[in-house]
Amino acid sequence: MKNIKPEQFRVDSNISLAKAPTFLDIETSEKKKEKILQKTREKLSKLQDMMYAHNRYGVLICLQGMDTAGKDSLIREVFKEFNARGVVVHSFKTPNSSELEHDFLWRHYLALPEKGKFAVFNRTHYENVLVTRVHPEYIMNENIPGIEKVEDITPEFWENRFESINAFEKHVASNGVIILKFFLHLSKEEQRQRLMRRLETEKHNWKFSPGDLKERALWNDYTNNFEEAINKTSKPHAPWYIVPADNKETARYIVAKTILDELEKYTDIKEPEMDDKVRENIALYREFLKVES
Asked: Which residues, in sequence order, are bridge partners of residue 242?
């Protein structure tokens, strides 16, 4: 089996999505992939327990990708061994009326992880420079001063949004949140096949929407905007990882292994030691409990 290392997928300089692979053969069977994912999940779970006790860092996992890229199933499979108190998943949909009364990052601030916990953003604050760029008419719902019509949305507007996102992530990271961002890189042909399965498999029919086909027709627009967003916001404190996603099992393992490897670099994460006063009186506490029995 091929050795997987985070740096294989991390964006450290400008990338072209057209040249990035959507499939990676890690030279092992599907059954073995499940076994190594299980072992990785168990290690992540133990590490999360330690982080919960350590109570210094939060972890923000951001997942983006085209429709059908496998975000939901990846979340289910990667985090299934976690203690429920240690991970919260947020699926960001179209902003509601209350959220639109605030700036575009407000609802994402509210969903940031507490110290010792993981937050998973299924779709993220990047929707505000992805979907809204493909459909700039959505910006009109935000009632931004000076933006009266779509034509008022200039290139400078988007640059300011990128600057706001970079500032947001830098501020969050400087306050103890470890940020890891994953783009599940799916080929257009694989998306076509997955959409076909939604139509042909009864238990998956509910997942299909005619809107999926309308968005698929805008594939190139989305790809260009994903590429620009990734190149402008992959930073050492908030890196992007381009994950080949045509095979779901491989993508899940890459994400899980990357999270584990990156978190293990934080050698200061340790279980807290027992308070000295408590340690001095262990014998007394033991005797108390023995008498009580």
From this structure: 183
User: What residues have CB less than 8 Å from 82, skipping those under 6 apart?
Assistant: 44, 45, 48, 118
Q: What distances in angstroms separate CA 4 from CA 247, 289, 291, one per listed residue?
A: 15, 49, 54
Neighbours of 69 (CB within 10 A): 25
Q: In angstroms, rounded to a whole number, what is the distance separating the alpha carbons of residues 42 and 31?
A: 17
Q: Which helix (H) or strand (E) holds 181?
A: strand 177-185
Can you state the angle between helices 30-54 and 248-263, rounded to 10 degrees? 30
* pTM score, whole prediction: 0.93
pLDDT tens readout for residues 39-89: 999 999 999 999 999 999 999 999 999 999 999 999 999 999 999 999 999
Find, among 158, 141, 139, the residue nearest to 150 by Cα.
139
Summary mean pLDDT of the chain: 95
The rounded distance, in Å, linking the Cα atoms of 205 and 214 is 17
Distance CA 203, CA 205 (A): 6
Residue from 31, 27, 44 nearest 256 by CA: 44
Residue 119, strand partner residues: 60, 88
Question: Residue 9 contacts by C-beta under 8 Å, 6 or more apart in sequence?
Answer: 241, 242, 243, 254, 258
Contact 71, 184 (CB under 8 A): yes
Strands (E), 188-273: 240-244
Q: DSSP assignment, residue 113?
A: P
Give 158's pLDDT tier (boundaries 50, 70, 90): very high
Q: Give the list of residues 6+ apart from residue 266 with CB closer than 8 angstroms, or none.
A: 57, 178
C-alpha torsion angle, residues 46, 48, 50, 54 (rounded to 10): 180
Number of H helices and E strands in the chain, helices first, is: 11, 5
